[in-house]
Design goal:
There is one protein chain. By secondary structure, the protein is mostly beta strands. The chain is built from three helices and 19 strands. The strands form three sheets. Strands 3, 4, 5, 6, 7, 8, 9, 10 and 11 form a nine-stranded antiparallel β-sheet that branches. Strands 1-2-17-14-19-13-12 form a seven-stranded antiparallel β-sheet, with no helix packed on it. It has a three-stranded antiparallel β-sheet with strand order 16-15-18, with no helix packed on it. The longest helix has 4 residues, at 14-17. The structure holds (2S)-amino(carbamoylamino)ethanoic acid (UGY) and manganese (II) ion (MN).
Length: 279
Amino acid sequence: SKSDDGFCSAAPSIDEKTKPIYWKVTNPTLSPSHLQDLPGYTRSVYKQDHALITPESHVYSSLPDWTNTLGAYLITPAMGSHFVMYFAKMKGMSSSGLPPKDIERLVFVVEGAVTLTNTSSSSTKLTVDSYAYLPPNFHHSLDCVESATLVVFERRYEHLGSHTTELLVGSTNKQPLLETPGEIFELRKLLPVSLAYDFNIHIMDFLPGEFLNVKEVHYNQHGLLLLEGQGIYRLGDNWYPVQTGDVIWMAPFVPQWYAALGKTRSRYLLYKDVNRNPL
Ligand SMILES: NC(=O)N[C@H](N)C(=O)O
Ligand SMILES: [Mn+2]
């Protein structure tokens, strides 16, 4: 549509402005209808050092030990990662199962609400943009009355000395902005940076036109979910148009770079392993 500032781009429709935050993650703009009808068409790509998993490729199945919940695994060690990333679509009266022994878990609410209960403290309601970190072997339950979509990260906890992690509950908008020397994106981290934690979740915000200064190559691996906006992701020698709802796997050392485009900010959630010697 021709918008008044001369750019012929699809202005966000009025009702989108009234939608809850991250609404487009679970209601992605699928490809234009003529492409949806195109047999076999997908934007998804799986290569040796990266993958782009787009909403039309998600395959859901019941999550073992969860009740009334469908899960779509997006990233698993079969790709070479040391973590799993999955969407958990919780229906009415659903509950989570526990991760396996020694596995830590981070859940982030993308849509709806869940209640977190554990043996000791009282129950806590997690709504959109809230998260919880559950230490390994920490008994808990996430219960949903109506519906919820969670993005979940799990991995084997890597001990370091006598450090231990603890139950953490928070929300992105309450986390402080951190310094990003040499970069212009806004950065929040959901977990403490202390040595006890062997990964963190970065929330990174870009205004349209802003891009990563460093074309990064590093030993860490990433699981990314684009929560808002659109842009171009460079992974190795490939350049991908990406949009809200897209998921990206980045293996260690894959050259990576992002540029935000469009008329609204980009926000992505990024798993990154930290604080452990790569040897
Ligand atoms: N691809 C990324 O956004 N990477 C982050 N800037 C990071 O590794 O910290
Ligand atoms: Mn990186």
